[in-house]
Write a structure and sequence with these properties.
The structure holds two protein chains of two kinds.
Chain A: E1 4-7, E2 10-13, E3 19-25, E4 33-38, E5 45-49, E6 53-54, E7 62-67, E8 70-75, E9 85-90, E10 97-98, E11 102-106
Parallel strand pairs in A: 2-11
Antiparallel strand pairs in A: 1-3, 3-8, 4-5, 4-9, 5-6, 7-8, 9-10, 9-11
Chain B: E1 3-7, E2 10-12, E3 18-25, E4 32-39, E5 46-51, E6 58-60, E7 68-73, E8 78-83, E9 92-102, E10 112-115, E11 119-123
Parallel strand pairs in B: 2-11
Antiparallel strand pairs in B: 1-3, 3-8, 4-5, 4-9, 5-6, 7-8, 9-10, 9-11
Classes of the chains: A mainly beta, B mainly beta.
């Protein structure tokens, strides 16, 4: 199975900050990586797929990059509605796996 | 708009069975492969099962293989998950999720773009 390691697991930031979340795969997965946002009590929401493609309707302050084993999700200017938990997911092979999550909280 | 509504969750004793359903609307259900993904309370996400758009391919996580069965009714726009021999570690919110590309054969993974709101399954005596 492909393991995904996210860092940090917890992040405290202020509105307007630039935030970067990392996701490392245990083996190369090309660009078969997605990022999801999950607010408390809600379903995950797709933000980025194919490592860097912005899902329709997602604000442009979200961006993704990377290939192979190293990936990042960047929020250019954190907004109040962005405080949530973020997960990366690999879709290179079964079983599908997720990172452990990064919780972004208000400083 | 795309809507996925799960139902069927509840409290069940270890060893018993439960059947979850996911009612789909707002898109051509019969054209898309589907997933079940679960999340134990306060924990991360775990993929459970996949089914191709036409139901011919099904795949399972090792943790549920032989106990859970995924199925679909394309005429009724419904996805199901039959869960047998339930264990305490199956306690989770169960989400259904839609693939973001049509005619996914299921044999290789595809990103999921829409998820339902989830249904909670609690396995406890």
């Amino acid at each position: 199975d492909i393991q995904l390691t996210q860092s940090p697991s917890f992040l405290s930031a202020s509105v307007g900050d630039r935030v970067t979340i990392a996701c490392r795969a245990s083996q190369g997965i090309s660009n078969y990586l997605a990022w999801y946002q999950q607010r408390p009590g809600k379903a995950p929401k797709l933000l980025i797929y194919a490592a860097s493609t912005l899902q329709s309707g997602v604000p442009s302050r979200f961006s993704g990059s990377g290939s192979g084993t190293e990936f990042t999700l960047t929020i250019s200017s954190l907004q109040p509605e962005d405080f949530a938990t973020y997960y990366c997911q690999q879709v290179n092979s079964y079983p599908l796996t997720f990172g452990g999550g990064t919780k972004v909280e208000i400083k | 708009q795309v809507q996925l509504v799960e139902s069927g969750g509840g409290v069940v004793q270890p060893g018993r069975s439960l059947r979850l359903s996911c009612a789909a609307s707002g898109f051509s259900f019969s054209n898309y492969g589907m997933y079940w993904v679960r999340q134990p309370p306060g924990k991360g996400l775990e993929w459970v099962a996949v089914i191709s758009y036409d139901g011919t391919y099904k795949g399972y996580a090792d943790s549920v293989k032989g106990r859970f069965t995924i199925s679909r009714d394309n005429s009724g726009n419904t996805l199901s998950l039959q869960m047998n021999s339930l264990r305490a570690e199956d306690t989770a919110v169960y989400y259904c999720a839609k693939m973001n590309v049509m005619y996914g054969p299921g044999t290789y993974p595809i990103t999921s773009d829409y998820w339902g709101q989830g249904t909670l399954v609690t396995v406890s005596s």
